[in-house]
Each structure stands twice: as structure tokens, then as C-alpha cells.
Amino acid sequence: MKVKRQRITVEELLSRYAAGERDFTCIAIDDSRKGLFRGVDLSGINLEDSALSVDFSGAILREANFRYTVWGRCHWQEGDFSGSDFTGINNGVECVFACCNFSNTNWERANLWQSTFEDCDLSGANFDNASLAEVDLLYKS
């Protein structure tokens, strides 16, 4: 069964979050602009079952819910996602995570096909039953 997602803009998400809303279940955001969330704190946001194609670089998304989201062209650099739940996510394209804090995150049953984690904090991360085909973990020496 295909999930019907409500399309919203980044500006609408930011406005609604600033007004106190945290539940953005089943939304769709497709925005190719860079740096939209840099320095923005969206901790505790619920993006479960959403379709995301956006630049999360520099964002603060501690204890966010990304369960069963579908990712398109997402950018992940220097973000803080500590304590977030990525259970069952499905990235449709290669993802590069650079210098992100993924400590104490849950990636159970996640499909991370062709993803790269470069200089990321993965301490305490749970990857039980995750699909890690062609995943690279790169660290500075």
C-alpha cells in the first residue's frame, strides 16, 4: 500500500516547529537548496514515514524520529543526530554522512545501501538487522 504524504516546504516546517508543533509524520519535502537547516535546532521532531530530499547539514536533530523515512538526495554534514531513531529507513540513493554525531542512535532494519560514514561519532549506535551492503566507515588517521 502506497503511503500518501502531505507535501510541505522547508519554510512551513520551520514555522510550524517554531510554533510548537513536533509531529510531522507522513510529510514530503523536496528542496535542493543548501544550508537550510544549518544551526537550526529541531530536536525531538517526528518525521516518521516521511519522504525527505533535503540538506540537513549543520542541523541539530537530537532524539528525532526518522523511523521508516525514505531518503532521496539528502545531505548530512556536521549535524547532531544523537539519540535519534533511524529504524527501517530506506535511502534510495547513496548517502554520505560527514562529521555527524550519531551517538546512541538506532538503525535497526535500516537500508543503508552505498552509504558512507566519514568521521562520524557512532558510539553506542545500534545497527541490528540493518542492511549494510557497500557501506563504508572512514576515519581520519
Give the gist of this structure:
The protein has 141 residues and is mainly β.
Structure description:
With 141 residues, this protein is mostly beta strands. It has a single domain, classed as 3 Solenoid (Pectate Lyase C-like). 6% of the residues lie in helices and 17% in strands. The chain contains 1 helix and 9 strands, in the order βαββββββββ. It has one helix at residues 10-18, and strands spanning 6-7, 27-30, 51-53, 70-71, 76-77, 90-91, 96-98, 116-118, 136-138. The strands form 2 sheets. A 5-stranded parallel β-sheet has the order 1-2-3-4-6, with no helix packed on it. The chain has a 4-stranded parallel β-sheet with strand order 5-7-8-9, with no helix packed on it. β1, α1 and β2 form a beta-alpha-beta unit. The longest helix has 9 residues, at 10-18. The protein is globular and about 40 Å long.
CATH class, please? Mainly Beta
Biggest sheet overview: 5 strands, parallel
Rg: 14 Å
Second CATH tier, the architecture: 3 Solenoid
Sheet-strand content, in percent, reads 15-25%
Q: Give the SSE string.
A: EHEEEEEEEE
How many extended strands? 9
Low-confidence stretches: none
Kindly report the average pLDDT value.
92
Let me know the CATH homologous superfamily. E3 ubiquitin-protein ligase SopA
Strand order of the largest sheet: 1-2-3-4-6
Determine the N-to-C terminus distance: 46 Å
CATH level 3 topology: Pectate Lyase C-like
**Discrete helix count:** 1
